[in-house]
Amino acid sequence: MESTNLAVIVLRRRPDEGERDHVRILIVLPWLGLASGVALAAQKEATVWLRAGLLLALGLVLFGLTRLGGRLTRAKAWDDACPVPGPARRRARPGRPPPRGC
């Protein structure tokens, strides 16, 4: 919710971007919403924030492993499809068209 209030504040400060009068609301309301969201988040215990941080870190590690695994799988499939030895092999990379001789 805080991100929505912050977006409204930013859009109100940049009238030249987007449609004219795209946000019609008193400027005090998003500020009150932002302040109340921060106040509610500050009331959480430290263990809740620690647990959230650990879950976020775990998600980032899993994301990195998935990206790395996908990259390695694509490289292995490309190597199997184009077994070119020598200098052409060094120029060959996944995502590029295969060199001559494949």
Keywords, please?
67% helix; 102 residues
Helical segment count? 4
Structural domain count: 2
- Mean pLDDT reading: 77
Alpha carbon gyration radius: 25 Å
Q: Which range best describes the helical content: under 10%, 10-25%, 25-40%, 40-55%, 55-70% or over 70%?
A: 55-70%
Q: Tell me the major beta sheet.
A: none
Distance between the termini: 54 Å
* Beta strand %: under 5%
Tell me the overall shape: flat
Helix/strand/pairing category: mainly alpha
Ranges where pLDDT stays below 50 over 5 or more residues in a row are none
Order of helices and strands: HHHH
Transmembrane segments: 23-42, 48-66
Region (Disordered): 83-102
Keywords: Membrane, Transmembrane, Transmembrane helix
